[in-house]
Write a structure and sequence with these properties.
This protein is an alpha+beta fold. The protein is built from six helices and twelve strands. The two termini are 31 Å apart.
């Protein structure tokens, strides 16, 4: 599943092409791509066609495009998207042939870039687009990365800020860790605590911090928590620089290009390979409905 770096790469790629563009037409070819939308395909098409798009915004693994109904700069609703397991948002020239697994196409006219299309393609159909009302943020800070407006889609309101968000309430995160008897990896994956982290970056941050994923969160020292949060931010920054992690053709940026952070992984997906720190073979074990990749020597439960 695309995590924060992958979704941020997509957002950054969309931003210059969609900001200020007018929607000329919308074609929904598969209503399974509207599972989060309160309405059918004709409703989605009618509510988006003719609208002007604002800057692309992201929180955690969600991104959205504000819909400016009156042209005054104040948006009251947005097209919100979640990529699910294999969703892609691709930029294409106007009139380009259909993409493989294409579900929705949005034709735009941009004042600088001319006519183009945003294509939502999704092989496994777990991703979705929807029109959703914008609501005020609970903390009065900007809704997400990419814009200063203090609003976000209603269906994203329960999603916490991510580790790279300057408005993240780190004291709340530390207090939750100190009070929890859950495994620390379970909390890293909790999108209501810190968003945007999935299995890949949780494993990488825990390896870098030398913490076993099943360590009870409340048993971590203040120093260990500080180290872990620093490593979370570090691995997310590195992945962003390298365009995210691609193991197959399902994750690509808006131009269809793969990220190359997979070459920089230290734990995730490296079962049986030597630890880059001590040489011990990386092991893989079941963790809820996922897997954890660890160095059994560097990441002992203490």
């Amino acid at each position: 599943m695309p995590e924060l770096p992958e979704v941020e790469v997509v957002r950054a790629g969309l931003a210059p092409a969609v900001t200020g563009a007018t929607v000329l037409a919308v074609a929904v070819s598969d209503e399974r791509a509207l599972t989060r939308h309160d309405g059918d395909a004709s409703d989605f098409e009618a509510r988006v066609t003719g609208r002007r798009l604002g800057a692309a915004v992201r929180r955690g693994k969600f991104l959205w495009l504000p819909l400016d109904a009156d042209g005054s700069g104040g948006a009251h609703e947005a097209v919100v998207g979640h990529l699910g397991m294999s969703g892609q948002l691709l930029l294409r020239v106007s009139g380009a042939p259909p993409e493989r697994h294409e579900r929705i196409r949005i034709d735009l006219a941009h004042p600088v870039h001319g006519e183009l299309a945003v294509v939502f393609a999704d092989q496994r159909t777990f991703g979705s687009l929807a029109v959703d009302p914008l609501v005020a943020t609970a903390d009065g800070e900007p809704g997400g990365f990419g814009a200063d407006e203090r609003v976000l889609p209603a269906q994203v309101a329960h999603i916490a800020r991510d580790a790279l968000d300057p408005a993240l309430d780190e004291a709340r995160v530390r207090a939750r860790l100190a009070a929890s008897s859950s495994a620390v990896k379970r909390l890293l994956l909790d999108q209501g605590l810190v968003s945007g982290i999935g299995n890949i970056y949780a494993d990488e941050a825990l390896w870098a911090a030398r913490i076993h994923p099943e360590t009870l969160a409340r048993s971590l020292s203040t120093r260990a928590v500080t180290r872990l949060l620093a490593e979370v931010r570090s691995v997310l920054h590195k992945a962003l620089v390298e365009g995210g992690t691609s193991f197959d053709a399902q994750y690509v940026n808006v131009n269809g290009q793969a990220g190359y952070f997979a070459h920089s992984l230290h734990a995730y997906g490296r079962e049986g390979e030597p630890c880059h720190r001590c040489g011990t073979a990386i092991t893989r074990s079941a963790f809820t409905n996922r897997s954890s990749h660890i160095c059994p020597r560097c990441q002992r439960i203490r």
